[in-house]
Specification:
Layout: E1 3-7, H1 11-22, E2 26-30, E3 49-51, H2 53-61, H3 65-70, E4 73-75, E5 77-81, E6 87-91, E7 100-103, H4 105-117, E8 122-125, E9 129-133, E10 140-143, E11 149-152, H5 154-157, E12 160-163, H6 170-178, E13 183-198, E14 213-217, E15 222-227, E16 233-240, H7 278-288, H8 299-305, E17 308-317, E18 320-321, E19 325-327, H9 330-333, H10 342-359, H11 364-369, H12 379-405, H13 415-430, H14 437-443, H15 449-467, H16 478-486
Helix pairs in contact: 1-4, 1-10, 2-10, 10-12, 12-15, 13-15, 14-15
């Protein structure tokens, strides 16, 4: 029976444990933190998750899609909040039935861990932080909270390691130092994030529209709020770490086009470094988000208690070491959250890897019959194929997420750009087979990210050109536009 060690019991690691156990493998999962099922979940770094079709497809394969969706809150569009309190709902799609789902990171993680623990061949080891990986011998070293070291050596305990230990992966860092030709880049935005909270009303009701992702776009920064199943909202403030100056608005990036739809800036810019006391925080929020402040009774407490997170993109290659270890999920390709695809992409990673294992003839049924088990599973070949399939696609979603943060900052107030967005919605409503770039990424799990990027960018260029020649979308013949889009290669 094949034995696999997973480093990291987060979302990707826990889901992967289920997939491998269903294929008859023994799985040991090592996690640096304690068992979150037994401890109070620490707030501050979650950024509520938007579960969409790619992630749902992976959960469906292990029979957990309906269970998780029952605990999710559907979000049918973006509710834009202006500085003066007006709101406008912008649907995610022109087709009915296409929406994203707000899920609790902790709730989903706990559900996946509980499901994995149902398999007798899955064992979780908590408070075991990976502090070293020998790329030649395959030995892993762990450190427990008391500071003692333990190690696992490849020949004795496992066939391979799969590292799902996040953007700060210790396995990736070891590969960067020891593997010849290994390349790795980590690019951080000037902006960070702070998690905040809107509680439910006195009777448990939602204090904002529950079936929407709420956005307060302010040119150089923004706040979002995602609904939780209990009636509360998890808010996230995205703001520059440094550079706040009431007299200057230069030098800080703007929010992505997905969340900015023409609301006017106040003309004043702050940064986390300037919000150092209660008075400054309250002045900033009352100025920029006046309609949200009355719903946030613990605003000041949350602001100073919760940590300020960083936003970055990680790219590296190669992802495996001679079959000894594989990087998967954020450990290989962390992305900024502005396309809502980090978790969905990692879940797709797991789904693709499992399909390659199946192609290798390694299933629970063959193991029970004693077939396909005379020789060890060919991890190196599987990992090589996996990397060739996934690298181009993970790079594509990373690029699209960054483009949404930077490149659209000069377009969001452009009337041509606004007309293009309106035109996309009309096309999706009129032609079921038309998909905007956003829809290709979010609602087409059958379409690789790389294809969505290529086709989506071509469509964007075409539609921008078309909309630049009219004053109103109503002037356009939708059939002619659709034919023009169809002619794109």
């Amino acid at each position: 029976m094949s034995q696999v060690t997973i480093i990291g019991a987060g979302l990707a690691g826990s889901l992967l444990a289920i997939y491998l156990a269903k294929r008859g493998m023994k799985v040991d999962v090592y996690e640096a933190r304690g068992d979150m099922r037994l401890e109070e979940v620490v707030a501050g770094r979650s950024i509520n998750l938007a579960l969409s079709d790619r992630g749902i497809a992976a959960l469906r394969e292990v029979g957990m899609d309906e269970y998780m969706l029952a605990e999710a809150v559907p979000m049918y569009g973006r509710m834009i909040h202006s500085p003066t309190g007006e709101t406008k709902l912008l649907p995610y799609s022109g087709r009915s039935g296409e929406y994203i789902n707000s899920v609790s990171r902790a709730g989903l993680n706990i559900a996946l861990m509980n499901e994995a623990a149902k398999y007798s061949d899955v064992r979780f080891h908590f408070n075991e932080r990976c502090v070293g990986f020998d790329t030649e011998s395959g030995e892993i070293k762990f450190e427990n909270p008391l500071g003692s070291l333990s190690s696992l050596s490849s020949p004795r305990s496992y066939d391979t390691i799969i590292a799902t230990d996040g953007a700060g992966s210790a396995v990736r860092q070891a590969m960067e130092q020891k593997v010849s030709g290994f390349s790795s880049t980590s690019v951080f935005l000037d902006h960070g994030y702070k998690e905040l909270h809107i509680p439910p009303g006195q009777n448990g009701e939602f204090l904002l529209e529950k079936n929407a992702l709420h956005i307060w776009p302010r040119h150089k920064f923004m706040m979002i709020a995602l609904p939780n199943f209990d009636g509360s909202f998890t808010c996230t403030l995205f703001l520059a770490h440094k550079g706040g100056n009431p007299s200057s608005t230069e030098g800080t990036p703007e929010p992505p086009d997905e969340v900015f739809q023409g609301t006017l800036p106040t003309g004043r810019v702050s940064a986390f470094e300037t919000l150092t006391d209660e008075a400054a925080v309250l002045e900033f929020f009352n100025r920029e988000f006046p309609d949200a402040v009355p719903q946030m009774p613990t605003l000041v407490e949350d602001f100073f208690h919760n940590p300020t997170g960083h936003l970055g993109t990680v790219k590296c290659w190669p992802w495996n070491v001679d079959g000894k270890a594989l990087l998967l999920g954020d450990s290989a390709h962390a992305v900024v959250p502005f396309y809502g695809q980090g978790m969905n992409c990692a879940f797709e990673d797991v789904r693709v890897l499992a399909s390659l294992i199946d192609d290798n003839g390694f299933t629970a049924e063959t193991q029970r019959r004693g077939e396909g088990n005379e020789e060890p599973i060919e991890w190196e070949d599987i990992f090589r194929k996996y990397g060739s399939l996934r690298k181009v696609n993970t790079d594509s979603i990373a690029d699209m997420a960054e483009e949404n943060f930077y490149e659209m900052r000069d377009r969001v107030a452009d009337p041509v750009f606004q007309r293009k967005r309106e035109l996309e919605t009309k096309l999706e409503h009129t032609y079921p087979d038309y998909f905007s770039k956003y829809s290709m990424v979010t609602f087409r799990e059958d379409l690789p990210y790389s294809v969505a990027k290529e086709k989506g960018n071509a469509q964007d260029r075409l539609l921008m050109d078309i909309c630049s020649k009219v004053e109103s979308v109503s002037e356009l013949d939708l059939d002619e536009v659709r034919n023009a889009v169809s002619s794109l290669k």
